[in-house]
Amino acid sequence: MLIEPLLKLLQKLKLTGMLAALERQLGDPDIGAMRFEERFAMLLQHELPERENHRFSQRLRIAALPQPACLEDLDTHLPTRHLDPTMISTVRDLGWIARHLNVLITGPTGIGKSFIGAALAHAACRADYHVRCFRLPRLIDELARAHAFQRRSTFLRSLAKADLLLIDDFAITPLSDQTKRDLLEILDDRYDKSATIITSQLEVKQWHAYLDDPTLADALLDRVVHNAYHLDLSGESIRKLRSIRNKGTKNAAAHQGASTSVHE
Predict the structure, then answer these.
(1) What is the set of domains in the chain, with CATH numbers?
(2) What is the Cα Rg of the chain in Å?
(3) Minimal CA–CA distance to 258: which of 247, 250, 243?
(4) Nearest by Cα to 235 from 104, 102, 92, 77
(5) What pLDDT is attached to residue 80?
(6) pLDDT tens digits, residue range 219-255?
(7) SS3 assignment, position 24
(8) Percentages helix, strand, coil for the chain, rounded to the nearest 5?
(9) What are φ and ψ of residue 233, in 5° steps?
(10) Phi first, then psi: what are they for 240, rounded to 5°?
(11) Backbone dihedral region of 134: left (phi > 0), alpha (psi from -120 to 50 degrees) or beta?
(12) Structure pTM?
């Protein structure tokens, strides 16, 4: 077979890893010394990571992380956040996803709750789990849209299929009675079948009062709290501390620049 049609065929079959590897082989003057099976094995070895990267990109796209985050960037030694090293080590190994457990992340605004939730969701995507992420207001909007177009059941089934569901900023906005029932159904579908992460500024002990329906609150919390790891963060806002530090750096740079101008 001529080379050009072969390259086009690989492109048509979307074997992009093999295509790139073959093009590199064609530019290697020493490649002819290798046996066919060795060259073919090299092509396959390049195709596998290409496909894994593509699947990872697709999982990230579907997950719709609330912000770019990964566990490698998580500062576990930040003293203002009071992270429990043992708990962090437990949740970051992701074994709780396979055991269909939950992770609750609570603490004041700006402390890094959403970052940790997004980083865990990112790690789950990398581990080949199907992930969905929603800020609570966005989830409420999606539920309202599903009701309006009479596709509530379809939307709830799509959430139930996710290995991991992240609900960010829980208790940030009032809930209608219908939304409370929808949330109960979402969490009931996931109970003992899949994992959920919930982040909230409100302490877990205040969630019952927030839901403002004792019977429904008991049912909802029973499905998410008692089988969960809990990261309770505290301290000053990281965003505030970074803003102060950045201003200090800029002021120092401006002062240094002014001093240099005077001496000149």
Answers:
(1) 3-62 (no CATH), 65-240 (3.40.50.300)
(2) 25
(3) 250
(4) 77
(5) 56
(6) 999 999 999 999 999 876 665 555 545 555 555 555 5
(7) helix
(8) 60, 10, 30
(9) -90, 155
(10) -65, -45
(11) beta
(12) 0.78
